[in-house]
Specification:
It is a single chain. This protein is α+β, with helices and mostly antiparallel strands. The chain folds into two domains: 2-75, Glutaredoxin, CATH 3.40.30; 84-194, Glutathione S-transferase Yfyf (Class Pi), Chain A, domain 2 (Up-down Bundle), CATH 1.20.1050.10. It is 56% helix and 7% strand. It is built from nine helices and four strands. It has helices at 10-21, 40-45, 65-75, 87-114, 122-141, 152-167, 173-176, 178-188, 191-194, and strands spanning 2-5, 29-32, 53-55, 61-63. A four-stranded mixed sheet has the order 2-1-3-4, covered by helices on one side. Helix 1 packs parallel to helix 3 (65-75), helix 4 runs antiparallel to helix 5 (122-141) and helix 4 packs parallel to helix 6 (152-167). The longest helix is centred in the middle third of the chain and has 28 residues, at 87-114. The relative contact order is 0.15.
Length: 199
């Protein structure tokens, strides 16, 4: 398999963490690229030019991190990240994590192309409110420490929180939500997060 990615994409990091958790990291060639440069090989794998993009052993191309995670969970029965007996709970948390990731990522990209004043636009303010609402909900829901076997919802949420700290430190969610910070610190201490840290 081949995985197209870069070192700062939260979506690509989610896919990499799933690979490590599933014990599939050795079976994948990482193809580092710049999705903003219209990399020809990436565009072949995903004409949208987005990462991550996975090429399976059979040559099928897959895009979107959560869909790639679903595929990888089916490839190997080892350490299911989408356990069926907790499906609704896992997907609920994965959705919160994905939405937080989207709001943060779109804020970063909008600032990159239009400057920080874009935060004062209707869409910028909507993204900011969404970030705050999601953080508040996560803080109310994530009361217990993660277990030794992490699931997709926990992965998506922890990646999103880490991305916020990495790209939007002014949000300073750790200070406002110390309980959430403790949960997050536990998650990012595990091997799969250590090996895929943002760079």
């Amino acid at each position: 398999m081949e995985l197209y990615l870069n070192g700062t994409s939260p979506y690509a990091r989610l896919a990499r963490i799933v690979l490590v958790e599933k014990g599939l990291a050795e079976s994948v060639t990482l193809k580092w690229c710049d999705p903003w440069a219209d990399d020809a090989d990436l565009l072949k794998a995903n004409p949208a030019g987005r990462i991550p993009a996975l090429i399976t052993e059979e040559g099928t191309t897959l895009s979107e991190s959560l869909l790639i995670a679903v595929y990888l969970d089916g490839v190997s029965p080892n350490k299911l990240v989408i356990p069926q007996d907790r499906l609704a709970e896992v997907l609920h948390l994965a959705g919160l994590g994905q939405n937080l990731m989207d709001a943060a990522f779109n804020t970063v990209i909008a600032r990159k192309h239009y400057g920080n004043e874009i935060d004062d636009s209707v869409l910028g303010e909507r993204r900011s409110r969404a970030i705050q609402r999601i953080l508040k909900q996560l803080d109310s829901e994530l009361k217990k420490p993660f277990s030794s076997s992490v699931h997709l919802g926990e992965i998506a949420t922890a990646v999103a929180l880490d991305y916020l700290a990495f790209r939007l430190p002014e949000v300073n969610w750790q200070e406002e939500y110390p309980q959430l910070q403790v949960w997050h610190a536990g998650m990012v201490s595990i091997k799969s997060f250590q090996e895929t840290a943002f760079c």
